[in-house]
């Protein structure tokens, strides 16, 4: 009788527990599929955080294969998604490279030293970004904006004042403001007037 009672109690307990709830791994599977597409396009992404992403990807596949618990499945999905968000696409550096080529072709001797110095600094920074394999889109855009601003800010050197500038200043007087020598036309007019006065006095 004791055995029967124990068996009945066990059956009752199992009935109360009910059937185990199936593990929902659909969200994890969708995340794994998206990660697989990223892995296939590895060349488009920067190396930054790539290894961490791959580790999360492998862990997610393992969790999906084992389906040990709903908790383990959910944790694997969340971790993989977080690592995917950290990935960065390689930026397009073509525009920056073209702009640097334009700047390099400029004859800096035609411009003021101050504005040319700003250009040289911007060119150095742009070259560094182009050479940096880990430069992201923000780095490229910042270098491009700085170089464009330096190009726009170039100032031509002022032309050296020539003889024509002095000639255009009008009659030259002394330091006290006294008028200078009379012009040739003025001298001729005075001579004519003096001769006329002389003739009148003689008559």
- Uncertain residue ranges: 159-203
From the spread of the alpha carbons, the general shape counts as rod-shaped
Oligomeric state of shown chains: single chain
| Gyration radius from CA atoms, angstroms | 44 Å
Element order, helices and strands?
HHHHHHHHH
Q: So how many helices?
A: 9
**Main β-sheet: number of strands, strand sense, barrel status?**
none
| Beta strand % | under 5%
Helix percent band: 55-70%
| Termini gap | 177 Å
Structural class: mainly alpha
Number of strands: 0
Look at the structure and give the mean pLDDT: 81
Question: What is shown here, in short?
Answer:
This protein is mostly helical. 67% of the residues lie in helices and 0% in strands.
Describe this structure in words.
There is one protein chain. The protein is built from nine helices and no strands. With 203 residues, it is mainly alpha-helical.
Key terms for this structure?
203 residues, mainly alpha, 9 helices, rod-shaped, disordered C terminus
Write the layout of secondary structure elements.
Layout: H1 2-17, H2 26-40, H3 50-66, H4 70-86, H5 94-104, H6 113-131, H7 137-152, H8 163-167, H9 184-202
Helix pairs in contact: 2-3, 2-4, 3-4, 5-6, 5-7, 6-7
